[in-house]
């Protein structure tokens, strides 16, 4: 019984320690999140305007535009925008003591860590770690050269490189502790993965188009399921690799409790 009470006190000290750390980072984190959100916003406007030009009448670019929401890159961009809005709202509420008693705000604050851990971090690391090795090997497999007619190199880096900057910034400035159970996080990760598979495979059977040219080469062979399985394994690795980094940057729960 005494050991159990001691463990509970240790856990409370740990939580308070992480809370104090989070509070100390809050002003600089908020400023950084506003800059990151603005950068994403500007790039989205630039990409949107580029997609409105007459050159979009070309067949390849018309197909590219029609597949816009079939790219995992776009899904991840939406996740990052949603998270940054969530993070900015939470930190403004805490920093300026507004809407602190609002139940919706409280729920958003509670879900923020889960959303980052289970969705934003692994999706961002997956996109960057998959895209660039394949792009450097043969860009035509994932980002054909005709796309350069509408999306600049800077826009390409914004949606495939800058996304890593966003999550690393949050990793450093937003202290978190390793969850006692990964079950809930992994369930959300799996739901997103399966939902994406359903969307882009269904789209292929309806339109005959894959978002990535690589898939035309491997669909119908053993390499197709193997590729999807490998992607899921990378997705899992991307999720689990964040926890040693959290401990390295912010200290383990044991260190914080002490």
From TrEMBL:
Catalytic activity, as annotated: 12-octadecanoyloxy-octadecanoate + H2O = 12-hydroxyoctadecanoate + octadecanoate + H(+); 9-octadecanoyloxy-octadecanoate + H2O = 9-hydroxy-octadecanoate + octadecanoate + H(+); 12-(9Z-octadecenoyloxy)-octadecanoate + H2O = 12-hydroxyoctadecanoate + (9Z)-octadecenoate + H(+); 12-(9Z-hexadecenoyloxy)-octadecanoate + H2O = 12-hydroxyoctadecanoate + (9Z)-hexadecenoate + H(+)
Name of the featured protein: Androgen-dependent TFPI-regulating protein-like
UniProt entry keywords in alphabetical sequence: Membrane, Transmembrane, Transmembrane helix
Compartments (UniProt record): Endomembrane system
Predominant place of localization: membrane
Entry GO CC: endomembrane system; membrane
Family: Belongs to the AIG1 family.
PANTHER family documented for this protein: ANDROGEN-INDUCED PROTEIN 1-RELATED (PTHR10989), AT02829P-RELATED (PTHR10989:SF16)
Pfam families in the cross-refs: Far-17a_AIG1 (PF04750)
Residues that span the membrane, as ranges: 30-51, 71-94, 115-137, 157-174, 186-206, 218-241
Protein's membrane topology: Multi-pass membrane protein
């Amino acid at each position: 019984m005494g050991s159990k009470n001691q463990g509970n006190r240790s856990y409370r000290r740990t939580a308070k320690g992480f809370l104090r750390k989070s509070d100390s980072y809050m002003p600089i984190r908020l400023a950084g999140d506003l800059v990151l959100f603005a950068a994403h916003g500007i790039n989205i406007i630039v990409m949107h305007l580029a997609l409105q030009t007459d050159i979009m009448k070309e067949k390849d670019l018309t197909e590219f535009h029609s597949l816009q929401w079939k790219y995992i890159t776009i899904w991840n961009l939406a996740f990052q925008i949603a998270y940054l809005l969530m993070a900015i709202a939470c930190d403004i509420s805490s920093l300026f003591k507004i809407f602190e008693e609002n139940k919706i705000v409280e729920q958003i604050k509670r879900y923020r860590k889960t959303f980052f851990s289970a969705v934003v971090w692994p999706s961002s690391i997956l996109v960057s770690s998959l895209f660039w090795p394949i792009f450097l090997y043969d860009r035509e497999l994932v980002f054909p050269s005709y796309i350069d007619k509408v999306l600049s190199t800077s826009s390409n880096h914004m949606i495939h490189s800058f996304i890593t900057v966003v999550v690393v910034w949050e990793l450093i400035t937003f202290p978190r502790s390793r969850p006692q159970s990964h079950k809930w996080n992994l369930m959300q990760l799996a739901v997103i993965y399966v939902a994406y598979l359903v969307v882009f495979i269904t789209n292929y059977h309806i339109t005959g188009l894959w978002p990535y040219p690589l898939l035309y080469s491997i669909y119908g062979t053993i390499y197709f399921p193997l590729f999807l399985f490998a992607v899921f394994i990378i997705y899992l690795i991307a999720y689990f690799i964040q926890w040693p980094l959290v401990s390295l940057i912010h200290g383990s729960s044991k260190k914080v409790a002490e």
